[in-house]
Structures are given as structure tokens and as C-alpha cells.
Specification:
By secondary structure, the protein is of the alpha/beta class. It contains 5 helices and 7 strands, in the order βαβααβααββββ.
């Protein structure tokens, strides 16, 4: 599963990194396979919760979904509730507390997914707000790795341990998230948003 923000730059990044998506509703056994790896085309699901911190900056708003969908016909937009951008405003920036809260709610949603391996194509500010909520009980070195700003098109792997709260209980901010591998950066010029590879245990 690939989960992606509805902003055009993340949709383009997901398309370039993961290739053509599996048509919504197509079972994995009927999906076209990659000629080199034999892997089936991924399901790419668009979710509003993992979008960039909204407000003030035009680049952090999005176009109407009906304009975006024809450009990404194999992406699944079924879980986006509003055609127009209901969150963006030129007058104020999303408060840090709300962005952090939204990030934790997104993580709780991810935790309830049945997939064990999920890629999230999102934004550096969103990730910064998410990772600020976790890791306070880890070593200084791990905390620095976890909380540093994500680079353009950086791939960061994270192991998410639900500690028995998978089936609906909210996550505790005291739980640690683990950055289990060094990050690698792929230079794609101006194209590309950070990608988080989540492995659930």
C-alpha cells in the first residue's frame, strides 16, 4: 500500500517512485506486474490527513479533486471527502498543535490498516510535526535522527509498534517510534516529497 497526500507534488512523487498504480478495486492477483521485479502494481490511496501543514502559502493548498483525478487515473481518491480544499486559507497557518494532532490521528489510522508494509508520500513539515510527538524516551542520537527535517524525496524507514493498541485505542505520546535504518536521499531536482516506509510489528 502507498498512502499519499492530495497535493500535486506528492502525487507526482508517488507516481515517479512507485510507477503506475493498480486501478482502484482491482485485486492484487489481477494487477499488472513490473517487468523487472515481477511485483504487482501498488494500490495508491490518497488521504487528506497526511497533507502539508496548511495555510498562508499557496503551495500548501490543493486544487479541486475533480481537476487532479484525470492526471492520476489509477490513484484511489475515494477517501477524500471534499472536492474543494476545505482546509487551506491565505489568512492563517495551521497551528502547530492541530498539525501534531492531525499527524497522530493519521498514525492511528495507519496502525489500523491490515497491511504490514506501507509507504507514505507526504511533506517535511507534516513529518516534523508527527515525529515531534514521539521518541522523547529514546537516546539523543536516535531522537536527533527521528526529529530532523526530512530532505527532498528522502526515504526514511520507521518500525511502528502498536503495543497492543492496534484495534482502536489511541496511541500514547510516550510510545517511541524507531528509526531503524539510516536514511537515503534520492536527488530528483525540484520534484519529490519525503517518503516514509512504515513496517508494523
Amino acid at each position: 500500500l502507498v498512502v499519499v497526500s492530495p497535493l500535486t507534488r506528492t502525487l507526482e512523487t508517488a507516481n515517479h517512485i512507485f510507477g503506475p498504480a493498480r486501478r482502484p478495486g482491482t485485486p492484487v492477483f489481477l494487477a499488472e506486474s513490473d517487468k523487472e521485479t515481477g511485483a504487482p502494481a501498488p494500490k495508491i490511496l490518497v488521504r487528506e490527513e497526511c497533507r502539508e501543514r496548511w495555510g498562508e502559502y499557496v503551495c500548501d493548498g490543493r486544487r479541486p479533486i475533480k481537476e487532479i483525478m484525470p492526471e492520476f487515473p489509477h490513484f484511489d481518491f475515494s477517501e477524500v471527502e471534499n472536492d474543494e480544499d476545505a482546509f487551506y486559507t491565505q489568512d492563517e497557518r495551521e497551528p502547530d498543535e492541530l498539525c501534531c494532532e492531525r499527524a497522530v490521528l493519521f498514525l492511528e489510522w495507519l496502525n489500523k490498516r491490515p497491511e504490514k508494509c506501507i509507504a507514505v508520500v507526504t511533506h517535511s513539515s507534516f513529518l516534523r510535526h508527527l515525529f515531534m510527538e514521539f521518541g522523547d524516551n529514546t537516546s539523543a542520537e536516535d531522537k536527533d535522527k527521528l526529529k530532523r527535517v526530512a530532505a527532498n524525496c528522502e526515504l526514511r524507514s520507521v518500525v511502528m509498534c502498536s503495543h497492543g493498541v492496534k484495534d482502536g485505542a489511541p496511541l500514547s505520546k510516550s510510545m517511541s517510534a524507531y528509526a531503524n535504518t539510516p536514511s537515503s536521499t534520492i536527488d530528483m531536482g525540484d520534484l519529490g516529497e519525503p517518503i516514509v516506509h512504515v513496517v508494523k510489528k
